[in-house]
Amino acid sequence: MKIAVSATGGSLDAEVEPRFGRCAYFVIVDAETMLMEAPENPGAAASGGAGPQAAQTLKQRGVEVVLTGQVGPNAQGALDTAGIKVVSGVSGKVRAAVEAYQAS
């Protein structure tokens, strides 16, 4: 399973970014191997539609779960359509967020 975390930087030691659609990076972690990639969020600087654009990016990368602070209604709809589970209210370091999710 691939888990994406909205993040301020491109590493497991980055902070979780509270805004899904406007985060700088998505740290995508393979839950089985803990291998990660950290693509920049192409929607971060968009004038509109950042959340749905971000959701599409994650769908194309095979993400099944998103950990983030909050998700707007348009992004939530796009994530629901993509079949991506959303866990909001997440904060702290990316690594800790992924580990906490896996332990739940």
Question: Could you describe the 3D structure shown?
Answer:
- This protein is of the alpha/beta class.
- It has a single domain (2-103), classed as Nucleotidyltransferase, domain 5 (2-Layer Sandwich), CATH 3.30.420.130.
- It is 30% helix and 19% strand.
- The chain contains 3 helices and 5 strands.
- The chain has helices at residues 50-60, 73-82, 94-103, and strands at 2-7, 25-30, 36-37, 65-67, 85-87.
- The chain has a 5-stranded mixed β-sheet with strand order 3-2-1-4-5, sandwiched between helices.
- It starts with a strand and ends with a helix.
Structure classification:
alpha/beta
* Radius of gyration from the alpha-carbon trace, in angstroms: 12 Å
Order of helices and strands: EEEHEHEH
What is the CATH C-level name? Answer: Alpha Beta
- Overall shape: it is globular
Kindly report the name of the CATH homologous superfamily: Dinitrogenase iron-molybdenum cofactor biosynthesis domain
Helix content: 25-40%
